[in-house]
Amino acid sequence: VELKKSGILDKYHVNVLGTPIQSIVDTEDRKIFAEKINAIGEKVAPSAAVTSVEEALAAALQIGYPVMARSAFSLGGLGSGFANNEEELRSLAHQALSHSDQLIIDKSLKGWKEVEYEVVRDAFDNCITVCNMENVDPLGIHTGESIVVAPSQTLSNREYYLLRNTAIKVIRHFGIVGECNIQYALNPYSEEFYIIEVNARLSRSSALASKATGYPLAYVAAKLALGIPLPTIKNSVTGVTTACFEPSLDYCVVKIPRWDLAKFNRVSTKIGSSMKSVGEVMSIGRSFEEAFQKALRMVDENVNGFDPNIKTVNENELREPTDKRMFVLAAALKKGYSVDKLYELTKIDKWFLYKFKNIIDYYKTLECTKANSVTDNILRNAKKLGFSDKQIAVAVESTELAIRKLREEYKITPVVKQIDTVAAEWPASTNYLYLTYNGSTHDLEFPGDFIMVLGSGVYRIGSSV
Q1: C-beta of residue 215 within 8 angstroms of C-beta of residue 237
Q2: Alpha-carbon distance values, 156 to 150, 160, 163, 191, 442 (Å)
Q3: How do the domains of the chain map onto residue ranges?
Q4: Which fold has domain 46-108?
Q5: pTM of the full predicted structure?
Q6: With contact defined as beta carbons under 8 Å apart, do 182 and 119 qualify?
Q7: Which of 60, 186, 383, 394 has its CA 20 to 30 A from that of 444?
């Protein structure tokens, strides 16, 4: 953007491929962005772009507290936060304006659902949505700090298509060529929604969408920037279909962030609109419970799953999330908190809360079972809900080895499934696989003589695509 402004690109006749620079400015400059969105009849949250602390205070009075402040042209929610009064906003604005010369003051939509779509468009106006994702945590927590599930689980068909059609309308209006990420705030009680932001680039969510669907986003975006149309790009996963096919998922993907806040003495463990996580994990299963418990074990090898015995119940921690909120939630469910009460405290959609309750209820069932009376059915259902052998062993007061042996006796083993981007409509040709207990047959043969390398980096995935 600076090179364009200073005339260097024109001077040396440099041609910028892909998304025009103007589109990047239009999406990052909050004032222009709001005007462009309003021009196509869509809505952004009531907001104002300001350049000084005094202007910020005046804007907040007009919009009404609580407000959210965030810097323009920034990554990872740098310099953003919520303010309930003038004093909080003054210190927030002072901090944010040291990162950027433009500050945006938004009406706070805390507690709304946060939904994202990844969209690709070529220079010939062909447009598809690659993946839609939903944050388990409500609005107010940065996407990079949220547990995210793909595809979205709580949207009605009507809401899904409403947001999808809007996403395509927006990417066309901005003239974006390549990949783009659009984030929405959706009112949980109606179909009212606001467009929070549009990233005309590969973002952290794009890395997740790419891995979750098996659709090679970075590869396709690079081809589109060269002016190649979508229908002529081969889908490298199936080898048969083109990149113009919208992926459909017959599995569930859960992303959980990895924090490392324990390394720092005076850092607050509260999470919010500014990103503190250092990496993330992604797990795949055939049910939400299975994928969720797998992901929790991947984040921290010392955790057995959605364990209600790690933390004690603390309502403040449920209201104001920390990096360990999920385990406080598990403890609250075990203590008998109702789903309605937990929704009131956390604003996490009740669908997810009922799924968490399923896991804890099964924990209680296992705890009432003696080690020598674990039946095939009990064990099979536990595995389908994502319980590990060690987790089951702790609940029934046995050992991991004994449970594993019992499982092998009952012939309860996982099946290997293949990610094919098109829900098995075409055969896939890649080695992109996952294990699940919610299945009956393997998707491919195992002739033997192969080596599998297992391992994880200290920060798990990071933001690679």
Answers
A1: yes
A2: 15, 6, 11, 10, 32
A3: 46-108
A4: Dna Ligase; domain 1 (3.30.1490)
A5: 0.89
A6: yes
A7: 383
Output Rg (C-alpha) for the chain, integer angstroms: 24
Cβ atoms of residues 255 and 208 within 8 Å: yes
Most confident range, picked from 8-12, 66-70, 105-109, 156-160: 156-160
Are 289 and 358 within 8 A, CB to CB?
A: yes
Q: For residues 119 and 199, which has the higher predicted lDDT (pLDDT)? A: 119
Is there a contact between 137 and 146 (Cβ–Cβ < 8 Å)? yes
pLDDT at 320 over 50: yes
User: For position 69, what pLDDT does the model report?
Assistant: 85
C-alpha span between 80 and 76 (Å, rounded):
9
| Residue, of 332 and 86, whose pLDDT is higher | 332
First to last CA, the chain: 24
For helices 21-28 and 30-39, what crossing angle results, to 10°? 100
According to the model, what pLDDT value does residue 71 have?
80
**How many CB atoms are located within 10 Å of the residue 2 CB?**
6
How many Cβ atoms sit within 10 Å of the Cβ of residue 338? 12
68: how many CB neighbours lie within 10 A of its CB?
A: 26
Helix (H) or strand (E) holding 298: helix 288-299
Chain centre distance of CA 318: 20
Tokens 């794009």 correspond to 206
What's the burial of 153, exposed, middle or buried (CB within 10 Å: 0-12/13-18/19+)?
middle
Query: What's residue 108's pLDDT?
Result: 85
d(CA 306, CA 355) in angstroms, rounded, equals: 11
C-alpha distances in angstroms, 454 versus 108, 110, 213, 451, 457? 43, 40, 21, 10, 11
258-315 residue pLDDT tens: 887 777 777 788 887 777 777 888 999 999 999 999 999 999 888 999 999 999 999 9
- DSSP states of 71-89 as a string? ESS-STTTT-EEESSHHHH
448's CB contacts (< 8 A; 6+ apart) are none
Whole-number Å distance between alpha carbons of 329 and 261: 20
